[in-house]
Design brief:
two-stranded antiparallel sheet; alpha/beta; Rossmann fold; 177 residues; 23% strand; binds flavin mononucleotide
């Protein structure tokens, strides 16, 4: 049995793909946060969530709330997926920039919520396909693009599975197998 576990949440599947690539590199098991996996037999727990409206998705927060004492005794790594290009869009004013944490800060924040020993954190680019979004999400993003980015809603695909796999391998080198 693997000594490491990747626990993720994902609404439209991109974070699940990144989580799987990390788990492959780390030679870890993988579980959806909704399944509330038992973390007791794992040395390192890697947590992953996409960023929605500047926050983590509820299932990973729920998992953290329910497992805090166990996670506090483990080695922790955390990753997030996000729309990286929003943060370096030259059309953003300084004021709007301040509203957007960096990917690294989001990932570090997720690890900090556990109280465990943080090994490493990483932000990855995600993916957004306008046609896949439910009505509520499309409405939010159409507003965001129109009023803050001043352009029509457009999708992006920043997924880099090779980079995710490499990070998994790096984690394995750091904590051993
Ligand atoms: C409604 C909505 C809100 C989002 N909010 C943010 C955000 O605040 N910051 C950001 O960097 N990316 C944001 N994103 C981009 C997502 O983090 C990105 O598309 C991610 O890859 C989605 O993960 P999933 O496919 O696992 O659900 C948002 C996407 C949607 C659809």
């Amino acid at each position: 049995m693997a000594k490491h576990l990747v626990v993720y949440t994902s609404k439209y599947g991109s974070t699940r793909e990144v989580a799987q690539a990390i788990a492959d590199g780390l030679q870890a098991e993988i579980a959806n946060a909704d399944d509330n996996p038992d973390v007791r037999s794992y040395d390192l727990v890697v947590l992953g969530s996409p960023i929605y409206g500047g926050d983590y998705l509820e299932p990973i927060k729920n998992f953290l709330r329910g497992n805090k004492p166990l996670l506090a005794e483990r080695k922790i790594a955390a990753f997030i997926t996000a729309a990286a290009h929003w943060e370096r869009d030259p059309g953003l004013t300084g004021e709007e920039d301040e509203l957007l944490f960096t990917q690294q800060e989001y990932a570090a924040g997720l690890a900090n919520l556990t109280g465990g020993e943080t090994i490493d954190c990483r932000g990855f680019g995600g993916r957004m396909v306008p046609e896949d979004l439910d009505d509520a999400d499309r409405g939010i993003l159409e507003w965001f693009y129109r009023f803050l980015m001043r352009k029509p809603l457009e999708g992006f695909d920043l997924i880099d599975l090779a980079a995710a796999r490499r990070w998994g391998e790096e984690l394995r080198e750091t904590v051993g197998d």
